[in-house]
Structures are given as C-alpha cells and as structure tokens.
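Dear colleague,

Following up on Tuesday's group meeting, I ran the structure prediction for the two-component complex that the binding team flagged. I've pasted the input sequences exactly as they went in, so you can double-check that nothing got truncated or mislabelled along the way. The structure tokens for the whole assembly follow below. Feel free to forward this to whoever is handling the docking comparison.

Inputs:
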Amino acid sequence: MTATAAAPPVTKRPVGTRPSRRWIGMTVRIALLVFFLLIVLIPVYVLLITSFKEKGAISASDAWALPSGWPWDWTTSGWSTAWDRLEAPLWRSVQLAVPGAVIASILGSMNGFVLSRWRFPFANLVFILILFGMFIPYQAVMLPLVDLLINDINIENGIPALLLTHIVFGIPICTLIFRNYYETVPSDLIEAARVDGAGMLQTYIRIILPLSAPAFVVTLIWQFTSIWNDFLFALFLSSEDNGPVTLALNNLAGGQLSNYQASMAAALIAAFPTLIVYIVLGRFFLRGLMAGSLKG
Amino acid sequence: MADQANRPKRRRRMHGIATWGPGLLLISPSIVLVGIFVYGLIGQNFQLALSDKHTAIQPETFIGLDNFKDLLTEDRFQHALTNLLIYTVAFLIGTMFFGMLWAILLERGIRGEGIFRSIYLFPMAISFVSAGVVWRWLLNGAQGEEAAGLNRLFQSLGPGGLQNSWWDTPNWGMVAIAMPAMWQLSGYMMALFLAGFRSIPDELREAARMDGASEFQLYRHVLFPQLSPVALSALIIAGHMSLKVFDIIYVIARNTYQVEVPATYMWQVQTFDQAKAATIASVLLIVVAVLIVPYLVYNHRTEKNR
C-alpha cells in the first residue's frame, strides 16, 4: 500500500562530511558490512560443505572443515540420494507453482483494473475485504478447507487441491500489486478510450493489458516464490507421494537416521529454483516485497 | 492529481449500473472465491470452535464459548502463548535491530551496495523448510566432545563458554529458535528501512548540517522521526508474520513441548480433536486481526487523504 510496482529505483547519494573523517567512517562501515555478510553466509557454507562430504565421514570435530582431501575426495553421493528422493516432488512443485502464479496474476490484474480504474459502489470496501485475506493465519481456514476440498468439491488430494488453494490465497496480494500499479496509469488514456466508445473489456484489453508487463513480472515472481516455498498448505492438503518439494524435503530431513549429507543437498536442490529467480530477477522480487508490505 | 477535472464525470458514472456493472462482473469470480475461501471458511471454523465435535464421529452441536474458556485456562495453551510472546519479542528486536543497522550502514551509498543488499536479503527467497534443515544442524544442542554446529564453532574459535543447548533450553529456547527467522527476515526489514531513508528529502539533511548538527544528532532528531511511519509498518508486518510462526519451529523441533506455539499445538490436536484445533486457530486469528485490521483501516485512510 505504501509502495507500488512502479516505485522509482533507489539512487545513491553524495556524502557530505570532511574527507579524512569520511575515509575512516567508510572503512568502518565496509568492515562491518563484510562482517555481517560473512555471518549471513554461514548457513550457505555449512550446506555446501556438508552436502559434498562422505556419509558417516562427519565426525563432530571436523564438522566445520572442508571435506577431507579436497578436491578429489569430494563425493556427490549425498546429492544423488537427494535427487532420487526429490526428482518427482520437484516436478510436481513446478506443475503447482507455474500455473498457480499465472492464474492468480491474471485474476489480480483484472481485479486491480476494476478496483482502480472502473470502480463500482463500495469498491474500496471490497478491496479491503480482499486484502484481509493475505494477512490471516491460514490455520483459521484449514480444517474447513480440507473438508470443503476433499468432501464437498471432491477435488483430488495433492497438487489439484493445492493449486486451487494457492490461486485463491494469491488473489489478495496480486490484486494489491496490480491496483497500485494501475493507479499510476494516466487517466487521460482511459478517458480517451472512453470517448472513442470503448467499453470496460475493450479498455482493459487494449489500453491496460499492454502496459501491464512490469506488474506481471512482479506478481509472477512473487507468487512463484511463495507457492514454491509453502509448507503449511502442503502439510494439510497433500502427502509425500503426491505433494510438493517442501514436504518431501521435510520428510527426508526428519527421518530417524538423519542423513545430513543428503538433507543438505536436498535443501539446496529445493531452494535452487527460487534462488535462481532471486538472482536473475532480484529487483522485481524486491518490488513484490515492498508492494505487499506483505505476506508470510 | 490531474483527476480533479475528471471527478464530476466519474461520480456521474457511478449512477449507472450499465457503466460499473461490467467491472463488477469481471471481478466477481475473485469476490466469490475470496468470499467462500476466506470468510466462509473462517465462519465455519468459528462454528466448529463453538461445537463439541471432539471426536471424528461426533456430530457438531453448539455449546457456546466453552471451548474457548477451557483453552484459555489450560496450562499447555498458556505455555504455548507465552512461548509465542517470547518468540515474537525476540524476533522483533532481532530483525528490527539488524534491519535498521544494515540500512544505516548502507543508506548513504557505498561501493558494492547492490551486492551487500542482495546477500542480506537472499535468505528471504529460501523456504523455511530448507533453512530449517541447516539451522537444525547449527542449533544442535550437543556439547563438549560431541558438539556440532554452532557449539563446535564456539569451541574451536575460543568462546567455548557460549555453548548451550539452544532451543532445548526452557524459555530461552524460544529465543534460539527465533534465530533462523531473524536470519531469513532481517534483510526484509533492511529493505523497508532503506526505502524509508531514501524517501527523506535531501534538503532536510542539508539543513541539519548547515545548523551544525553532528551525525548522531542528524539521525536522532531529523532522520529517525521521519522514519516512524515506515517503522510502524515494519513492526506490524514482522509482528503478524511472527504470530503465525509454524514452519520453522516444526521443521527444526517437530512437536517438542519446550518450543510449542499455538500453530504447532493446533497441528498436533487436529488429528483427533477438531473442535479444539478450531478453537486454537480462532484464537490465533483474533490475535492477528487485532493487529492487522486497524493497520488496514489506517492505511486506507491515509491513502484517501493523499
């Protein structure tokens, strides 16, 4: 609500103190920043080194060391175990997250257009009521949801049930992002179309949709990431043999014989798609984050 | 904005259902879906919470607020609520502190800012489940010879006295289990604060410097007051995320009583006592709504006045 998908990029600013003190200040700041950078990266270091170790090779005393005999004794056995367990769930996660993100974005775009540019009586109230849906603890709908999907709608447990659920609960944030984005479209454009006799649908398709690409990138990335990373819905609405990758990862990591090599390799594999999205399209991810001020 | 001239026109438009009707039609699928899945299901959940459906076969009979009374006076639930409170306080202090610190370090621009920002923020892109796998290892409570994870690191780097049993410590365990969540979300707070700093007009800083304000005074008297709306949003967003915590605790500690919160309690209970699980979920919803509804209304008001 505070920021929009079209928020201006952050810019650097000149520093205005005396040169010598500036130097010291700058050095201290960089030192602190690097220090925190290393702290933040500790878990990544642990994930990487452990995933390449020999199973059982991890005695407690060299837990933090690189795998012995680097680089020729590194083993990928943890990775292959992980891959065997995760391959099918990964594919199911793709089948869930991609259509889930696309459909919620389309609905969000239509809603955002109507709620900003083609308002009806009480449109603002409707908007707030929709928005509330992204803040609720999903536990508060979970038991009736399971009942509704499985017993009433009779939808298949697993990916189909999860897909419908993620589309519905993705609507609020997508609507918010598109509404804020469309608020920035000049009203002259819409008035001009109206003067030309364009109806609602024509205005949306001819004027609004062609301008929507930036907002679509934001919602697609945001929804893909949230659906991919969801665990709560997956736990209630699917099981290991028909659920997404988070569920499989949790089962692999939580087994009685905790195989840390495979678990950590699996954690990296499961995180890989969202990490790639983040690295390649990070600035759009950030916009989604700011726009929602957000969901969790 | 330039809307001033269009306003009368728009108001006239509102009169004809022929004009706004199609819009309402376009949005109606979403209204129906959200209506059913959010409000309908919340209603059903409350209904369940007000019933005595304590076993799978029992029919739902209305019994009023009895479940709520029982739950709120129950030791186990109070323990879970206390845990949630400790977790939330720790999480808020941690994320706001690091978020603000990183934002202050970065806000005046520095070489490689993009890299720092991206790396501080990247844990947010990872699922709590993946994060949980590595943090479970880091927060391993074994000490001495058997020590692994952070305890082993403390041993080898010197401060062996820092070794502790992490989340398996009464009360303080909640602070330990908040650490992974801080790791994941401090970067988000940083991003919010950074955007806040950058929306402050340069003239304000310049004026303060002209008046001879020190760096400390500049922050204390000029920049921080400007940031308070951002800080309030950040607090509410982080607070509501924290109240809903489930994934990270479940993945790291499963159903350990020591770190039980309402959400994990509900997950355990729902397999056999639906009414009680629904009651826990209702309490959680009420707590979150008390925080969020005023925020939504406030946001809407300020937006209108803009």
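Residues 77-117 of chain A form the longest helix (41 residues).

Cheers,
M.
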